[in-house]
Amino acid sequence: MATAKLRKENQALRSEITALEERLDKITNEVSKKKDSMADSLTGQEVNHATNRSEAADKTKSIEFISAQYDDIIVFKNNVIQDLKDMKKQVSMISKKCEAITTSVEPMEDYSYQYNLKIVGMPQQCENESAENTTKLCLNLFAAIGAEVTEQDIDISHRVLARRQSNRPSAIICKFVRRLAKERVLALRKKTSNVQPQQLGFSSEVQLNYLSIYEHLPPRLQELLFEANKYKRENNFKFCWVRNKAICLRKSEGDVVIKLTKREDLAQLLSQEQSS
Questions:
Q1: 37: pLDDT confidence band, cut at 50, 70 and 90?
Q2: Dihedral of alpha carbons 127, 130, 136, 139, sign
Q3: Alpha-carbon span 140 to 142, nearest angstrom
Q4: What is the CATH number of the domain that holds 192?
Q5: What whole-number distance in Å separates Cα of residue 97 and Cα of residue 170?
Q6: How far is the C-alpha of 120 from the C-alpha of 127, rounded, in Å?
Q7: Fewer CB near the last or first residue (10 Å), C or N of the chain?
Q8: Which residues contact 97 (CB under 8 A, 6 or more apart)?
Q9: 3-class DSSP state of 214
Q10: For residue range 64-110, what is the model confidence (pLDDT) as tens digits?
Q11: Integer Cα distance of 114 and 238 in angstroms
């Protein structure tokens, strides 16, 4: 997907910008420290020359020489600092452009993903399962849970490789032509636990223990969901789920639902936990 590739490249560029900003800060500090160190050294030399030389003319020349060196260092230091400031300004401008690209990409991703469902735990009929066969499995599943979906409602269905190696079958991404058809399936997805293998075209020995239907989240929300689940485990939250393009957290029954739509929301939640 073009937006996914653009998003990945943009994220890589932002990481490079962050690293460059840190490097610029380090260089700025090192130059400043170097200047102070050399200034102290030259001041000491100035005193030594003044003490050891009895001739006023030699003393004056020595001081003038050291003073000129000191002035050169100051000019060099100021020029370097100015160059670094200019570079940081350029980096900041690039960073803002990257942010603008991200802001543009996210709505496109959201629009594209809003027609998708993700089906996990669906056994494969054969090793080289065709898109047509995958679509047939989806239709069988939707019929088994009571959702009225026809082949004309589906644009395409295909398997996707898991990020981590697993013995479970690859997940299916089912892209609908109309969002209403997708919503009909989502409304009945809890019934997947009652689906029998024979309803999908498999023998009764086939296991459907992990069969589930989920919304197919854009990459940024997938990452946020991963981090939210991690937060849930570490802070003894009972619930974490997805609703209307938001990650929802709830400590326990009856507690207020916390909605997360971006990483900053989770960062703020972490900050509140640490300060309380």
A1: low
A2: positive
A3: 6
A4: 3.30.70.1820
A5: 37
A6: 17
A7: C
A8: none
A9: strand
A10: 656 666 676 777 777 777 877 877 787 787 777 777 777 777 777 77
A11: 27
Residues 204 and 198: beta-carbon distance below 8 Å: yes
Q: Residue 36's Cα: distance from chain center in Å?
A: 41
Please state, in angstroms and rounded to a whole number, the distance separating the CA atoms of residues 48 and 58. 13
Mean pLDDT of the region 137-143: 96
Q: Residue 60: what residue type?
A: T
Check pLDDT > 60 for residue 35: no
Question: Do 190 and 224 sit in the same domain of this protein?
Answer: no
Number of domains in the chain: 2
Structure tokens at 106: 């996210």
Residue 141 burial (C-beta neighbours within 10 Å; 0-12, 13-18, 19+): buried
Collapsed DSSP state (helix, strand, coil) of residue 259 = strand
Q: What are the beta bridge partners of residue 116?
A: 175
Amino acid at 246: A
Contact predicate 24/88, CB 8 Å: yes
Residue matched to tokens 């054969």: 126
How many CB atoms lie under 10 A from the CB of residue 146? 12
Give the number of other CB atoms < 10 A from CB of residue 53: 15
Residue type for position 168: R
**How is residue 149 written in tokens?**
């979906």
The answer to whether residue 70 is domain-embedded is no
In the block, residue with structure tokens 């990459």:
219
* Residues whose CB is less than 8 angstroms from the CB of residue 205 and which lie 6 or more positions away in sequence, other chains included: 197
Structural domain boundaries, residue 258? 219-275
